[in-house]
Amino acid sequence: MAFKTGDEWRRQKELDEARKAGLAPAEVDENGREINPHIPQYMTTAPWYLNSDKPTLKHQRNWNDKGKDGTQWYDRGVKVFQATKYRKGACENCGAMTHKTKDCLERPRSKGAKWTNKNIAPDEKVEDLKLTGFESKRDRWNGYDSKEYARVVDRFEQLEELRKDIKKKEQLERIHKKDEAAEVAVDVEASGDGTIDEDETKIKEEEEAGFGEVKKRVRTTAGGSTGSVRNLRIREDIAKYLLNLDVNSAYYDPKSRSMREDPQPDKPASEKLFHGDNFVRNGGEYAAWQSLTLHSITAHDKGLDVHMQANPSLAEMLYKQFKEKKDQLEDKSKEDVVKKYGSAAAPLPDEVKVLTGSERYVEYDRAGRVIKGVEVKAKSRYEEDVIINNHTCVWGSWWRDGTWGYACCHSNMKNSYCTGKAGAMAAAQVVEDGPDLELDPKKVDAALRKLEECERAAVDGDRSKRKHNSLEAGADDVTPEEMEAYYLKKARGDDPLVAMMQAQNGGVSAAVTGTAGYELL
User: Fold this and answer.
1) Which of 94, 181, 455, 476 could form a disulfide with 185 if both were Cys (CB 3.0 to 4.6 A apart)?
2) Confidence band (pLDDT; 50, 70, 90) for 108?
3) Which part of the chain is the Pre-mRNA-splicing factor SLU7 domain (predicted)?
């Protein structure tokens, strides 16, 4: 690269900016093609070993490009020279110089052109086509003339016209034989195209039985015989590769004519004509074989000496025993469920049939209330309306604040006795007043001292009898302060501070040290 001064670098940079803006024409390479000004300089500048001073993109292109092969092909049927007598070195059969006797494609003559010196074949045009491309070497349709197919179409149309004429003549002959030409012949002539009412593309009933049979020669050890082989494919079947024309769909192998995957996975199964070859492979005894193999592998992983390929008889026997035990356990589990909950398929007992329906007349209003008659509600097989402890309602007939209770007394304890309306009013009063009560500390201290005296008297052995007026009215009324003193003095075995308090008080009972605990509180 030649040395450039600072001014030259600045002018080159301004020129590049003008080319990018479209104000200056683009730079041209050595082949006369324009170079995109937006391509970076490190791509347009050639390496030093190419000895190129101008920007070029030759080093970026394919340097080993052999060019594209044209559509050239051998000229079919072109003759070069027509000889009149046999020449030395020519084909002994036809007399052409372009091939040898072993490569001759003509019918072998009884006496070749070498000896008869007659009917000398002309020389063919020999061409040497050098195809370099991968596709051109493997193009099976190279040299095919599409005009040749026009002759096939013309021949088919001529045969179709002849077939229609023959069908028309046969139909007219049948009409004349049945003496009905007066009515039917007019209809046939009016149609004019010789078409037939019935669809000729469909097979008839008498031909349907033998449609799938293919006559072929079957060789046996005792000699040749003619047999028939069933052809399972019919004309109405759609080819597998035509079900889904997407190039990314299931792969079709033309050699084995197999398509293992489902070509239409999103289509409903009821509308599919083909589910893939793997769908057929999963049928039959495949599921049983897969279960046997899986059982053998699982048993081997758990330490059992069994192998499907090494000892298949043992593996099958163990799997059979496993299935028998599994069936027995399932039957036992089913029997236990039926025994506990009953079976819907079993006939209803007589006592349930009686409750299913009756002829009693009951009349309701628009709100669903009974106007006339007595409503009979069918009961279940479980116990209902069981009333205990003098309650008039069942447990669960009342609910408040996330708890169930009795509707007769509003009690939340299931084993409590009914207190009637008084209990319901008391429960409502407690809710209105709230559970927190204001206690007098002096009365609480007095109740604690009284309780301690009773405990000391019990420890000292004071077993004096009750006085004659100990059960008089109001003597056994318990105040809230006394209840608080009782709760404070109550011994709690699950309290973690009991052991510590006993150690501090020298083994004294926690019940005796209740006053100190209250004072600390």
Assistant:
1) 181
2) very high
3) 133-397
